[in-house]
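Hi P.,

Sorry for the delay on this. The queue was packed all week, but I finally got your sequence through. Input first:
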Amino acid sequence: MTRSALDIAETQSTQAQLPQVTEPRNPGMVLDLDWVARVQANTSAIERRCASLPARRSVKKAHQAAWLLKAVSCIDLTTLSGDDTEMRVGRLCAKARQPVRAEVLKALDMEGLSTGAVCVYHEMIPAAVRALQGTGIPVAAVSTGFPAGLSPFHLRVQEIKESVAAGAKEIDIVISRRHVLTGDWQQLYDEMKAFREACGDAHVKAILATGELGSLRNVARASLVCMMAGADFIKTSTGKESVNATLPVTLVMIRAIRSYFERTGYRVGYKPAGGISKAKDAITYLALIKEELGDRWLQPDLFRFGASSLLGDIERQLDHHLTGAYAAGYRNPMG
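Then the structure:
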């Protein structure tokens, strides 16, 4: 790896080497329905902007490797299957601690790199906490009746509290889509505020399930309301919808984040989830974040990929960068 490329890698992937800047948490604000009503989304313009991005922001060779290392540090390595076991979660946590083969990281001078978090169901939190003890890698838990979010409200709030008590440092909640579809912004705000309060010191990611919200305007308005109610992150999807993260949805959500920051001074994180499985797609998302929000949002305290298979393709590309050939699948197991 050339010296200039190594400099990029050190800038882009500092999670393992340097302490992260601590952002003040978004405290939320009073619901401003006038601001919400003014929010619009020009779908055709948004789609044109996003269609042009992959070709314009292609990076190669050492620069590509540096961006891929950055992407690894921002992955929420996830298992959300009905057949999850403590052993599977333990293997996934081992992968989070050592996401890329040691000899590859050594060749790139990036020893110590880890993923941003490990995301599991509530029942698997204790196993994940044990496996990650001493690493500084947080455990995230999906909550509030994930993925549909249709269980009784008091049970959703209690689920958050129990996950925090079990050791989860981040809680990924799902909103009630009906509040968005019916334009009941007060109900959405009140629900999100209650979820935030139940999280206590744990950070809360609000999953909007954007594929079920009907329009990009609804996505923009829901993003804003959740931030007003105190969300630390806004997240696209559960990964269980028919349509998950897309570039147009991402552009809408991060512009809402930018507007919120310009008005309040508080930075809210962003997490695209579901359907991002290729290394080239990860670079496109990172480029869009850099262009719209700037370098500060390229750190794992403000940006995450909700993914599992993405890491495997990134490893293949890093192997190819070093050797000119793709490694066999068994050399890059998920756990």
